[in-house]
Amino acid sequence: MAGSVKILEGDHVTRMFGGLSAVSDVSFSLFQGEILGLIGPNGAGKTTLFNLISGATSATKGAILFRGNEITRMSIARRCHLGIARTFQTGRLFPSMTVNDNVLVASLFGKGDGKRDADARQETLELLDFVGLSDKADHLAKGLTLAAQRRLEIARALATHPAVLLLDEVLAGLTPIEVAQGVELIGRIRARGISILMVEHIMKAVMGLSDRIVVLHHGEKIAEGSPVEIASSKTVQDIYLGETL
Amino acid sequence: MQSLPQRPYKHAKNAVVSALKKWILPMAAAALSTGIFIGVPRFTAPYVIVLMTSILMYVVLSVSWTVFCAPSQYFSLGIAAFFGVGIYTYAILASALPSAPLPLLLFFAGISSSILAFFVGLTTLRIKGMYFAIFTFGLSELLRHFVMWWEVNMTGTVGRWIANLEDVIVYRYMAILAVVTVLIAYLLRRSRYGLALRSIGDGENASEHVGVNVSAVKIAVFTGSCFFTGAAGALIATRWTYIDADFAFDPIRNMFTIMMSLFGGMDLLVGPILGAVSIGTISDVVLARLPQVSRLLLGLLLVIVVLFIPQGLAGFFSSRRWLSLRARLKKEGSERGFHGRGDQG
User: Fold this and answer.
1) Nearest to A106 among B203, B211, B214 (CB)
2) B48-312 CATH pick, 3.40.720, 1.10.3470, 1.10.287, 1.20.58
3) Which residues does chain B have within 8 Å of residue A164's beta carbon, measured at their own beta carbons?
4) In the A/B pair of chains, how many CB contacts fall below 8 A?
5) Does the global pTM surpass 0.95?
6) For site-directed labelling of B13, which of A216, B87, B176, B191 has its Cα 20 to 30 A away?
């Protein structure tokens, strides 16, 4: 399923906070059409790596490349226009706006800026249908359940027409049924040809979805490989001591 | 299959209807209200014209303040600064070019406020919340003292004379300015940039992540909104004959404008208009009769609004709480009426 074209690359990326390196000399590649899982214990630097890719923080050393072009110093909005979208671990919807408007603003200002209003409205309806929130279009975002908020974050990210989607723990805190629905949704997003980089703690989900997995620990990449390889890796098992992968 | 030929027609019809709704109706409403405002002096006492001019000025100030500050959550206390810059630009230009037409002078007064707002935006809209408020307030005070110092030390005067214009002329221009301000605020709120501004207020970082060029939107709307503040200052100054820095940059205008927006409600366009009309009228009536009490009363009003109807008049009357209260009152009223008839019978 995964092609051989690199769409997103990290080249020896380091991010220091004071004297501490949150991400240290990490290199990775995301291939066109694949799902790359990013796992590691709390504080391993997963969210920092996401911030480096989306532009929320900038790299101290190293480079981020999108379709082979360096984007390390580019603004968040420029990266979004190129085709990088994300969700947030701690929900960052626009709480006082309706579900519909949350997606609409992304559709109007994301990649393909300059779209006609009517087209953006149409696209918003389609995306709300795609994630299963059509009946909540007029609700305020702050009134949604956790699962619905996650779906809305995904719809909003998709509205920017991403080539790469970064999912930051979209399944955390959900019930088993909601997790199953989320996994199904992520599968449908991949079927649209969008490459996905996902941080996830729910091992069953991330093992089932990912084509490859990268393991971070203390900001360093300690393992990379297929889910089977990762599950049987001695180093990874030591870190997740006691957890069955 | 059979519905296929109807589609182009339907599209064309939809396009016409949406164009009608989007552009022609607001324009027509604006033209109509301008016509009414311009016609009013034929039927009213001169005093009413003067009062209406002040109220319309506050409509301009509170609408142009609210249009940026409410959705973006950047609270500017620099109204006095932009107002005063408009006044001084007018005073200088009008004495240098006595034959220049009034609209042109007002335009340049607005532009100079916008230029100031542009640089303020460029340097400070990156700082969040309270710091922006304090900075803009400091700017008002800085300009007041700077202009005072400049006039005394450089021009050798304290204030400036401004050629007086007829009340009716000032009133008519103010009415046009108010209508244009409201029309543009309406169009902005409904546009994609209005939506972007709200997303900025709700979460600046998330807004950037969906592709909004946050700095550009903030600076553009702030710059645009301050145009009207400056033009309103210039226009009202033609009624005063004499200006000085203390009066032109009076910080009480910050208070008044924000109070009107709060009182009327900042979420709806009608809010600041309602606030300007009600507080403008109340303060004028009270000021004329009980000058000592007027500011006390306004202070009290502000406290009541903040404590009991934080969403303002417009917000309150469209809130669920009010609608259910009204429904209950109606129901009780009709029940009581029923009993009343029963007692009589």
Assistant:
1) B211
2) 1.10.3470
3) none
4) 77
5) no
6) B191
